Amino acid sequence: MGKSSVHARPLxxxxxxxxxxxxxxxxxxxxxxxxxxxxxxxxxxAASHLKDLQLxxxxxxxxxxxLIEAGRDLARLNSAYELSRQKEAALNKEIEHLEKMLNxxxxxNYNYEVARVTRRDINQWWQQLVIRKGKDHGIIEGxxxxxxxxxxxxxxxxxxxxxxxxxxxxxNFRIAASFEGDRRPVIYQGVGTPAFSNPRGIIHNVPPDxxxxxxxxRLVTSRLGGTFPEGLVLGQVDELKARxxxxxxxxxxxxxxxxxxxxxxxxxxxxxxxxxxxx
Length: 279
Description:
The chain is an alpha+beta fold. It has a domain at 174-261: Thrombin, subunit H (Beta Barrel). Helix content is 34%, strand content 31%. The strands form two sheets. A six-stranded antiparallel barrel has the order 1-2-5-4-3-12. The chain is globular and about 70 Å long.
């Protein structure tokens, strides 16, 4: 009997603490949460810096020939990016011309802030990343987060030198989207990442005449999606099915597999102060 009471004592203590925490005022909970996060953040940043240092010294061990070949590949990529930049400048001029002709509001401009990922919190309930930049670097809540393959998510919470990114796989993430080549809006929402499977989402309100029978269709951001620029890749839709009401279709969205293993992302900070970044 004595042993059982000793073993039950920690559970009773935990229950008392949870009961006390339940009645704590919300502003005190928020204060404790923020300070606890700020206390952990330096350890996460230090681990991230050590990982970068380890990568640096591993690269130093490469032979001179490997470095020469890597330099050649980088030169080719720079040439390709320069051509893309020139093409982008021409397209931007064409967009400005069409906006003036059609009397459309200009698209928002962004400043790219690149940040390293220090921590991942990806499970059945949370779909988040912690990045190594925050308020001191101009990061704001609601700002889009992207990478070379498309959309990563958006800034959910900002601290002094860190920020939390809500991934597009999160059930709390919703955005207006469209199929590539078809500007009719649909609604995208994340559904989490089931165990031992890839991240995914779902789409709603797909017009009944749309089909994916020929090839899988890419889902991209829409101009109606608020802070996100138009045309960024969200994922791929392999199949659509009619809803029970028969008015619209819905389907599953396969998200990029490397979404969960990113080491670096870019935050789009609107240059126009009038752009709404609220979630």
